[in-house]
Amino acid sequence: MPRWADQIFSDKIDALFKEHRYRQFAEIERLEKQHPHAIWHGGDTPQPIINWCSNDYLGMGQSTIVSAAMAAGISEGAGAGGTRNISGNSHALMELESELANLHGKQRALVFSSGYVANEASLSTLIKLIDGVKVFSDASNHASMISGIRHSKADKVIFKHNDARDLERLLAAEPADRPKLIVFESVYSMEGDIAPLAELVAVAEKYDALTYCDEVHAVGLYGDQGGGISQALGIADRIDIIQGTLGKAFGVMGGYITASDPICDVIRSYASGFIFTTALPPAIARGALASIRHLRQSQNERQGQQRQTRRLKTKLTAAGFHIHPGNSHIVPVMIGDASLCRAISDRLLQQHGMYIQPINYPTVAKGTERLRLTPGPYHTDVMIDSLVAGLSETVTSLDAEHILAVRHRAC
């Protein structure tokens, strides 16, 4: 590598360290059928820990239902054989897409290699294909959605987070015949708040706008079959495109969209992120299919998660911690300082065997750094009590009791 290039890259990394923004990835070994128990390999010897920040929200990633389906799926091939256009359009994927379309009450579904790719490829393609479209994007939308909109080079405007009135104000300023696309999420993963979907959809219908809803942090978790917030509210049929993931509550990997046949067909035919990417292997598709089918008929996992979320929020509040207001399963404990957030996370892991990754800028705004907790059905009452006690001890040890009494101005 040229010396000048090495210096540029080194300086960029040094800047992250100085701003306490360098991302440190913990080496975690998950234990078969023992979620949320795991092994941390970062110390002198391997250490047992409890994982408190996994997006495997319901523990389906270690479910015997899923692992058995994946093991059986290996008989269909370890890999997909290439892109779906060439040799990867497996029968397993077709069954998975049919199940996803049925879950959301749509004509069709398309599976991608990840939720990020699903958003970026679908949005950039849709926007480019609609002449003169203006995009209305929620201020807190995920990076993948922002990237898809940016790559399309669309005329866009940002509406205030979860603010249907601001959205309507912006829509009303546009010519009635101009094509419009509204892009939003149902559950926002860093704040833990749930969007007013019914209000957003009603505004969209009033102004004849196309709607795109990211439900990645809601599928599997809400609705009587795990179809997300839109299913829970009974309005899935009024949202044009519902996007989701297979890598969180469903416990496997991959992303998808569900929509009408024309929308899915045009994305299948024009989106580079779909056409030129190797398809998911059959075993992955089989595992995801088994997980979806199980969660469509089982309420145990969802009810268990909701119960433990309520308990954790109650215990943390009683101990004086400030939780970002929200009514979802995500529990953000506000810290407000990047260095302190990192220090709390490190001590919890090293001294208490509790893994919680700090969330710093640019994932969240500077001054709103937090610990993001995701309690699940397999986190016991004893684990919750131990977590709250460990957090309290850590705050005291680091002389950081001020975070218990001060509610951050940005929260």
Q: Could you say which overall geometry the principal axes of the C-alpha atoms support?
A: globular
Radius of gyration over alpha carbons? 22 Å
Distance between the termini: 45 Å
Supply the number of helical segments: 16
- Stretches where pLDDT is under 50 for at least 5 consecutive residues are 406-411
The strands making up the biggest β-sheet line up spatially as: 4-10-9-8-7-5-6
- The tally of beta strands, per DSSP, is 14
What is the oligomeric state here? single chain
H-E order: HEEEHHHEHEHEHEHEHEEHHHHEHEEEHH
Helical amount: 40-55%
Largest sheet: 7 strands, mixed
Structural class: alpha/beta
* Average pLDDT over all residues: 94
In short:
By secondary structure, the chain is α/β, with parallel strands linked by helices. The chain is built from 16 helices and 14 strands.
Task: Write up this protein.
- This protein is of the alpha/beta class.
- The protein has 16 helices and 14 strands.
- It has helices at 3-18, 64-73, 84-88, 91-104, 115-129, 143-152, 164-172, 197-206, 229-233, 261-270, 272-275, 282-297, 300-318, 338-352, 381-397, 402-405, and strands at 28-30, 37-40, 47-51, 108-112, 134-138, 155-159, 180-185, 210-214, 241-245, 255-259, 331-334, 354-355, 358-359, 370-373.
- The strands form three sheets. Strands 4-10-9-8-7-5-6 form a seven-stranded mixed sheet, with helices on both faces. The protein has a four-stranded mixed sheet with strand order 1-2-3-12. It has a three-stranded antiparallel sheet with strand order 11-14-13.
- Mean pLDDT is 94; it is low at 406-411.
